């Protein structure tokens, strides 16, 4: 159990900077997920916490101790790697017990602890096997066991589930969650998979281009994305974004070809905004309904429990997710009803969230 | 299972193999067969008939103290030069693997010694190690008489070992470096997270994982030390002083082409061939068991 404090962390490789001054605080026992697209610096940040990567600037402290200059082994972290990184020439029990062996733990105690970990992870019958003879899920569990046996202060996970098939991933996800609840060690989990991120995280850190875009609970990130990037990155299908301009009694969208009437509060007329609306917040209505946008259906994706309907809005792609039993034909017209309280507004220039249209805005006069 | 391209007709496959088979037959099986035949006969030095003598050639060689001396010298040479060349290469490769800037340059530069013909490099080392003018002359200045490969058999042996090792360090280095680089970075990192220091990581993770390469190089180095040493011995010591560096391969040459004892030389080359075969089998049977293949 340990808190992690990250202050102004930077990372340069030769001339390129990949992490631009990150500040984060992870509380003791918290499960934090760092989410971002490939190359956003999330793995680099994790590896800097682990001590596998030199810190170019700033400070990382674990439990109040600055660890910048400490060797990985002195930091009290354990890490689960993306490709598991099991020692191929050692058996499962040797893999799990290696850190204890290095630490000079006597053989009897070592065996006892290996057995205990193996029992937790249901690996007892595999202890004599080599990693080669294990399935992906079993290797994953061995990697977890190797991290667990040291009883570390901090668990670091570097996309540990990305090599598993979909079903196993869901299963391992819940196992990791259960394990965390039991061990209660501070955990930092890096992933590019938003479902993994949403389901695992106590707190979610969304990164992009070496910067932190937003920190919050999964709920906060979903309902109040702090930037256009977060809005479109989190949620599937991605949030629809329509460029528009604020006018006297609403929004002029898509270069003026469409408009939405609504009460507005605070934004000066003429402000260019990006209006975001989640596909699941759009309601399908009959074409021509007052206050709705008419669009042509492009494609319908059947998901079983619902459907994603891709429509064309004057050339702009737009998607609607519905669980209603509607099956519009491609090429037919539909009306899209968007409530002002479901809209998100982002600055067209900076992409930052603009909090002007409050959820309490009354139903617009149509 | 790997998918292989196969030929519909076996004749096509044979046709493709014929050029290679011809080469192997002409330059290996035929001469080797001739050597076996010669070793069982007494050949006249200037041609013109021979006498079948059975195993007499082998009997006379194996009862000759000079020959046993040559075997001992060969084994000493093989053991020390292989050990030296592999150890230095292993250390260099382990160090290079940690700091990779410029490793491409090392790879090119370090393979060069292997490309130098043995007599050429022997000539260079003959000058470098010359007791009266080379680098060792400075040592002789301080301790007179310390170094003279022309008089002292041990010095002569050391000279050819240094020359041979120098050539094979580069060769071994390339293989060791490739083997180190083939170890996933994350394994080393995982070991570091597990609390293992640099030296410990080397012994626990890297060394076991490069055992296939170590084994391969062991076989190659020992075999080559029996064969590729000829040029070095010929230029540097010519087998002397007092047969101290008269390695088996050199003795075959000097007995056969200088002493004109073709049959005795043929019998020696058969013994050398058998020795290499036995050593290789031994290595595969007993050392390979300790190799971890992934």
If you had to describe this structure to a student in words, what would you say it looks like?
The complex is a heterodimer of chains A (366) and B (294). Chain A has 8 helices and 20 strands. With 366 residues, chain A is of the alpha+beta class. Chain A folds into 2 domains: 228 residues, Rossmann fold (3-Layer(aba) Sandwich); 110 residues, OB fold (Dihydrolipoamide Acetyltransferase, E2P) (Beta Barrel), CATH 2.40.50. In chain A, strands 6-7-8-3-9-10 form a 6-stranded mixed β-sheet, sandwiched between helices. In chain A, strands 13-12-11-14-20 form a 5-stranded antiparallel β-sheet. Chain A has a 5-stranded antiparallel β-sheet with strand order 15-19-16-17-18, with no helix packed on it. The longest helix of chain A is centred in the middle third of the chain and has 18 residues. Chain A starts with a strand and ends in a 19-residue tail after the last strand. In chain B, a hairpin with a 6-residue loop joins strand 1 and strand 2. The longest helix of chain B has 34 residues. The two termini of chain B are 16 Å apart.
Describe this structure in a few short sentences:
Chain B: Belongs to the binding-protein-dependent transport system permease family. The complex is a heterodimer of chains A (366) and B (294). With 366 residues, chain A is of the alpha+beta class.
CATH topology of chain B: MetI-like fold
State the oligomer: heterodimer
Query: How much helix is in the residues of chain A?
Result: 10-25%
Please report the total strand number of chain B as a whole number. Answer: 2
**Rg of chain A (CA only):** 25 Å
Distance between the termini of chain A: 56 Å
Query: Into which percentage range does the β-strand content of chain A fall?
Result: 25-35%
Number of domains of chain A: 2
User: Average pLDDT of chain A, to the nearest integer?
Assistant: 85
Helix content of chain B: over 70%
Domains counted in the coordinates of chain B: how many? 1
How many helices of chain B does DSSP assign? 13
Structural class of chain A: alpha+beta
**Shape of chain A from CA axes?**
elongated
* CATH architecture group name of the largest domain in chain A: 3-Layer(aba) Sandwich
Low-confidence stretches of chain B: none
Strand order of the largest sheet of chain B: 1-2
Mean pLDDT of chain B: 87
The CATH architecture of chain B can be given as Orthogonal Bundle
Flag low-confidence runs of chain A: 358-366
For CATH, the homologous superfamily of chain B is named as MetI-like
